[in-house]
Design brief:
two-stranded antiparallel sheet, 5 strands
Amino acid sequence: MDNGVFKPTNIGTPQGGVLSPLLANIVLNKLDKQLDQAGFRFVRYADDFIVLTKNRCQAEEALAFVSRIMQSLSLQLSQEKTQITTYRKGYSFLGFVISSRSRSIRPKSIEKFTDKIKEITRRKHNFDAEVIEKLNRVIRGTARYFGTKFSTCRSRFIYLDAWIRRRLRCMKFKRKSHRDNYRMTVATFNKLGLEKMVNYYQY
């Protein structure tokens, strides 16, 4: 779809469809075998993968090696997503930004999460039990995924929990005021059954 208009195409698969990761695993099975035979260490999930090397020279060799394999499969690497980096600087993988300092949520993943919350908590909507139920589904899904033992997202979870409560207070009272913190406390939200992201964080 381009600007709301459907256009026919014979390239690729629908984004988010169940067929896309299945086809990626079938086609990229050759990539796995070739990387393994060449002695490279790598991690792949569907069409998202990283190759680990000891230095930049090896990384450049790996990039050229992967590019050749992809060409043989009539595929090409995404110029936007492909990069050579270091563990100290960090890199994005499966929604995380992974580095020697932290394993945090990627900014784009946070944006997707907050967009979903904003849609549910618009001030023009009524604040009722259905809102809490919808929020809990979004909160549980995101918190369970990013709250793994290796992640360092606890402070981010605490911030997002507070931000969600602020959104709900604005939704309830149709305004933004610090005084409403005392009218709807954390205990109030607990009674209403609102989930907390930080409760899903694994230590």
